[in-house]
Design goal:
The chain is mostly helical. The chain folds into 2 domains: 70 residues, no CATH class; 110 residues, MetI-like fold (Orthogonal Bundle), CATH 1.10.3720.10. Helix content is 64%, strand content 2%.
Length: 199
């Protein structure tokens, strides 16, 4: 025989089940509307995690998943033993931190300064022009800057020579770290575009 306590627990479980079913029936259209978004998250966020297994395989295209050779942590050991790994890690962290600092302060400063401009046409023009870099690829920006700073026909060298600041064209890239430093300056330059400002 069931005790009083067991009967009470059984009754509570039945009530909870009924409540859940009632809620599901009442909100069935909300659940149906959320299905495409759940599918989107599964397809683009969870299914790609399956590809992470390639880091532990000697992956060969054309072979099935079960035919791949498993190598464990071999690729990670090779990565951490590479001399260039720490240089790449340092550059990545430096650019990320710089992007966070500059990306947080510059849009606010830009928004405050632009808010003080009284000439409406000039303000709208600056807003439009400052938003344009948002539509340009990093590859295109790097190519434009490289061409502008080039010794052979670069516009910056041509202007400096025209104003008499230079006699002969010179390399304007930072010479200490090469393209990496220049890319950091580009990062700062693109953070000044105002796309994250409050307008």
């Amino acid at each position: 025989m069931e005790t009083v306590k067991e009967k009470a627990h059984s009754k509570i479980r039945v009530q909870r089940r009924k409540k859940i079913i009632t809620t599901l029936k009442q909100q069935k259209y909300l659940y149906l509307m959320s299905l495409p978004f759940v599918a989107l998250v599964l397809v683009f966020n969870y299914f790609p995690l399956w590809g992470w297994t390639m880091a532990f395989q000697n992956f060969r295209p054309g072979l099935s998943f079960f035919e791949q050779e498993w190598v464990g942590l071999q690729h990670f050991i090779e990565l951490f033993q590479d001399d260039r790994f720490y240089l790449v890690l340092r550059n990545t962290l430096a650019m990320s931190i710089m992007g966070l600092i500059v990306g947080f302060t510059m849009p606010i400063l830009f928004a405050v300064l632009l808010n003080e401009v009284r000439h409406a046409v000039f303000k709208r023009t600056v807003q439009t022009v400052s938003y344009l870099p948002h539509f340009v690829s990093w590859v295109v920006v790097a190519g434009i800057v490289t061409k502008m700073l080039s010794i052979d026909g670069g516009i910056v060298n041509q202007l400096l020579m025209a104003f008499g600041s230079l006699i002969n064209p010179c390399s304007l890239w930072p010479r200490v770290n090469g393209f990496g430093s220049s890319l950091r300056y580009l990062t700062c330059g693109r953070r000044w575009d105002g796309t994250q400002s409050f307008f």
